[in-house]
Amino acid sequence: MESNLRSGKLAPSEILLLFDVDGTLTIPRGSISSAMETFLYEKLKPHATLALVGGSDLDKVLEQLNGKRALKEFTFIFPENGLVQIEKGEEVGRQSIQQHLGEETLQRFINFVLRYLSDIKLPVKRGTFVEFRTGMLNISPIGRQCSRQERNEFEAYDKVHGIRQRMIDALRKEFHDVDLVYSIGGQISFDVFPHGWDKTYCLKHVTQERFQFKEIHFFGDKTDPGGNDHEIFEDPRTIGHKVRSPDDTRRILEEMFDLKDA
């Protein structure tokens, strides 16, 4: 899909900029910088419609984006891969993994995860290994209550030992009869959700006829196969932009909208 941005043919209401959070607008689990806020809200927003899609729940997204200002500045916020839909600061829809899978399957899955984690040895383990979200389960072998230093150390350890990928392989084998997708994102965890409930789920909302978007640009860092940005990055309805950091995101946007000296 070719972009007409440089030709100036598209109005701001026709361009949707859809951002991942971790590694795209912020450092992993960090807060957005004041410089990035100023750029997004004062320089970029007059040129396009802004949206977020992330795997975390709304509270965690708002924590990273300095509170409720994001609800005002972003036209759309899609926590939990878009299973929760927020438009102009108001929740307009949600989907539930509990209803979709049923309690029996859900408990069988969680019990297996906890048994598996009890048998693996890591340099450290902390708390909150299974986080139940509206549209997914988030599994963290080290535990989400680890410190930032422990988080960084686990990421490096995982790159060598493949802890998350081996666990995913075991879950795929055990639950081959359940229609689940496994997606590694961030530094310490992976997401589990029904097929089709990846970040492309949010596109069902923004492609409704009442919107007039002619281009949907997605920005994310985990775009390789297995990453939680891969499906939406490759989706034919989006123009994908792979980024390495918030600074990289800003650089690409400055070039797209000729904002370098604005």
UniProtKB/TrEMBL annotation:
Per the UniProt entry, the signal peptide is none
Documented EC number(s): 5.4.2.8
Its pathway, per UniProt, is: Nucleotide-sugar biosynthesis; GDP-alpha-D-mannose biosynthesis; alpha-D-mannose 1-phosphate from D-fructose 6-phosphate: step 2/2
Q: For binding Mg(2+) 1, which residues are annotated in this chain's numbering? A: D20, D22, D221, F233, T238
- Name the residues annotated as catalytic in the UniProt entry: D20, D22
Question: GO cellular component terms?
Answer: cytosol
Q: Where does alpha-D-mannose 1-phosphate bind?
A: R29, R133, R144, R151, S189, D191
Q: Which cofactor does it need?
A: Mg(2+)
UniProt: Mg(2+) 2 binding residues: D235
Q: Does the keyword Zinc-finger apply?
A: no
Pfam families cross-referenced by the UniProt entry: PMM
Q: Which reaction does it catalyse?
A: alpha-D-mannose 1-phosphate = D-mannose 6-phosphate
Q: Which GO terms describe its biological process?
A: GDP-mannose biosynthetic process; mannose metabolic process; protein N-linked glycosylation
Q: Just give the chief location class.
A: cytoplasm
Subcellular localization is given as:
Cytoplasm
Which GO terms of the molecular function aspect are on file? metal ion binding; phosphomannomutase activity
What this chain does, per the entry, is described as: Involved in the synthesis of the GDP-mannose and dolichol-phosphate-mannose required for a number of critical mannosyl transfer reactions.
What protein family is recorded?
Belongs to the eukaryotic PMM family.
User: What's the subunit arrangement here?
Assistant: Homodimer.
Against NCBIfam families, the record matches this protein to: HAD-SF-IIB
Task: Spell out the protein name for this chain.
Answer: Phosphomannomutase
